[in-house]
Amino acid sequence: MKGLYKFRFETVRGAGCGVMFATEGGRLYGGDSGYSFIGHYTEAGGEMVAEMLMSRHNHNADYTPMFDVDNVVMTFRGRAIGEEVHSEGGTEALPGVAFRTILSPINDADAPPPGRVGPDGIGNGLYSIHIRMLDGLDGGNTGVMMLHDGRIRGGDAYFDYIGAYSAAGGKWKGEIVNREHTPSRGERPLFGGHEVGIGFSGTYTDEGAEGEATAFAGKRSVRFKAVLKKLAAT
To answer: Which residue in 129, 136, 143, 162 is deepest, having the highest Cβ count within 10 Å?
Structure first.
């Protein structure tokens, strides 16, 4: 198990989707539009066992979380079925709420090559990303993003992000392809149904980064500002 995955979960309170990045060393980093997931997994005898911390990163006033918790430890047990991993689990903080999940691999073979990162470049890790549209457009988005040695992998409840960046001297720039892994059903009308190319540039510190970007959705170009906050180093 290694690489970028889409996950879908179902519970008695509702269903949702997000992304998860699994490392060869057994680490898990992921999230959706409201929460991040950071943990580890082991594989033995055909069974995968995972433990992770689910933490809320979206505290916007217009966001209503499905679960009224901020930081809880979750455990899952599952098995591979073809290329997917099917598992069940939960947390003691939500008694009686079982999570049934499916992890499906996301093909990132067409990702751009990694950029050059200087010795003082932006730190590797999992970041939350909060997007605000510019030029008088309403709306925005939130998700998570893995930055690692010039590579970008991430996503949210509807989209996955694959890309590359260069960073040195407190400045960074890069490119991202935004793709719909789950139909957004009008939740994100601007990007829904499109594979969107995005170019960005900005600044960074040890705690996070920001930048302005231009996205090309069909024949339309859209500008937005993104703010990243570091959630965990890798």
So the answer is: 143
